[in-house]
Amino acid sequence: MKQTQDKARNLTMMMDEYELTMANAYFNDPTINNNTRVSFDVFYRKNPDGGGFAIFAGLQQVKDYLLNLHFTDEDIEYLRSVGHFTEDFLAYLKDFKFTGDVDAFPEGTIMYPNEPIITVTAPIIEAQLVETEILAQVNHQSLIATKASRIVRAAAGRAVSDFGARRAHNNDAAIYGARAAYIGGASGTATVSAGQYFNIPIGGTMAHSYVMYFTSDDNDYRTSELAAFRSFAKSYPNNCILLVDTYNVLKSGVPNAIKVFQEMKDAGIESKSYGIRIDSGDLAYLTKKARKMLDDAGFKDAKIIVSNSLDEYTITSILQQGGQVNSFGVGERLITAKSEPVFGAVYKLCAVTNAKTGETIPKIKISETVEKITNPGLKDVYRIKDESGRAVADLLAIKGETVDMSVEGGYRFVDPEQPWKSTHIFEGCTAELLQKPLIIKGEPACEDEDMQTIRARVQEQLSSSVWPEEQRFENPHKHYLDMTPAYYNMKMELLRNEDK
C-alpha cells in the first residue's frame, strides 16, 4: 500500500527562514549565476546511545517532499508580508520546483558517522531551500529506527510492538515514529493511522478503564473484573489478551483470566491467540509467578505481554532475571528515544560546479573542533566486506574513482586516524557501492519500496554483514571509515591550502 500522509499537504514552507534569506541574497546578487550547481551531503557525527551504528530511515518522505515542492499563492503572499524578500525573488518562487539530482543510501541501510547518506546536487537556490525538511525527516526517523533496533535486539526474538502514540511529541511524531520503529524491527504498532498509511500491522488489547467500567452486585472488584474479562472474551475469542493489573495481578487478575480461559475451553472455543498483559509492578517477578499459575492451570500456550516504561535496558534486566515474557509493548522510551532524543544529522556544502567550465570544485568546512571538519567533494561510499560477507569498513572515494578489490596484493587504503601506517590493505574483500540514484533532474529515478522490503533490509544486514561486536550496547566495536589514497590526498591538500 502506498503511504498517503504527505500527499494531503504541501510541506514546501517547512524551512528555517535563513534558507529563504540566503536564497533571496543569491538571487539578487548579479555576480552569482543562480544556475550554478552545488552539492550538499547529509551525514551525522555520532551514533545515538553510544551504539555501534545507526539505521537510515525517512528517505521516502524526503523523496515525496522534493517531488512535490511548490509555493502556493498563499505562501507567496505570506512571504511578501514578512518584508524580507524582493518582488523579483517572490516572482521566481511562483514557478519554483526541484530540478536537481539526489543520490542516497537505500532506506533501511545500516550507516555510520561522517559518511554521506544523501547527496543533493542542484542549482544553488534549490539545494539551499530543502535543507530543513530533509534533516527533519532523516533525524527523526533514523533516531527512532535506531532506538527500535536496540530494543528489538534486547528482546532476543520476542515481539516488540510500538505503544507510544500518546507519549509522542505530536501526531506526526507518533505516525512517522511508528513507521521508523517498524523499519527498526518492531513487529507492529498500536497507532491505527500509521497502519493505514504505511501498511504496518496494528494491534491492541484493552485499557484499565475497560476493566474499571464494570461493577458487580457484591461491590467486589474481583467479581467486576471477571465480568469485564468475560465481556472482552466474548467479542475477541481469537485475540483474547486480558489486562490483569488493574487491581491485583496474582490474587485477582491472573485467577480471573484463568477462569475465562477455562470457560472458553469448556465451550469448545480454541483461541488462536490468548493470554495476559501486565502493565505495572515488578515485571520479572510477576511474569514468573503468572507463568507458573497459567501452566499449572493447563494454559501453557497462553501469552504474557508486558508494558510500562520499557527500553533495551529494562528489557535486558527483566530477561536476565528470568522474566517469562512472550512480547513487549514499548511506548514513551521508544517513540521519543528518551535516552538520547537528538540524532544530529547535518547538511553541509561539499562541492560547487563552475558554471562556465563545468569543473567541480570540492569544498571543505574547517573547524578548530576536529570532529567538525567535513569530508569534501563529490564522493562514492563503499561498504567493504570480507569473504564471509561481514562489513569490515566503509570507504570514501572520489566520485567515479576506480576501486578494484581484485588487485594483486590487496587494495591499499588510508585510515585517516592513522594515515602514517602503510600496512592498511583489504585482501579477499568486495566493495559495495552504497549511494543509489533517487531523483534525476527532478524526476524519480527508482520505484518506491514497500515497508516490508525496507524492514527486511535492516534484518538482513544485522544477521549477515554487521558484526555482533558492533551490536553490543556497551563499548561496541568501532566501524572504520577509511579513504582511498586519492581521496585522502585531495582532502589533505585542501587543508594545507587553508593553512597557508
Q: What's the short version?
A:
With 500 residues, the protein is α/β, with parallel strands linked by helices. It has helices at residues 17-28, 59-67, 73-82, 87-94, 124-129, 131-154, 171-184, 192-198, 208-213, 221-235, 249-266, 283-296, 312-320, 332-335, 451-464, 485-498; strands at 37-43, 54-55, 101-104, 110-111, 118-123, 159-162, 188-189, 240-243, 274-278, 303-306, 327-330, 346-353, 360-362, 379-385, 391-398, 411-412, 425-426, 430-433, 436-440, 443-444, 480-483. The strands form 5 sheets. Strands 13-12-1-5-3-19-20 form a 7-stranded antiparallel β-sheet. The protein has a 6-stranded parallel β-sheet with strand order 7-6-11-10-9-8. The chain has a 4-stranded mixed β-sheet with strand order 18-14-15-21.
Strand count, sense and barrel status of the largest sheet are: 7 strands, antiparallel
Outline: globular
Strand content: 15-25%
Give me the oligomer status: single chain
- Please report the number of helical segments: 16
How many β strands by DSSP? Answer: 21
pLDDT averaged residue by residue: 96
Compute the CA-based radius of gyration.
27 Å
Contiguous low-pLDDT stretches (5 residues minimum) are none
> Helix proportion of residues, in percent?
25-40%
End-to-end gap: 57 Å
Structural class: alpha/beta
* Spatial strand order of the main sheet: 13-12-1-5-3-19-20
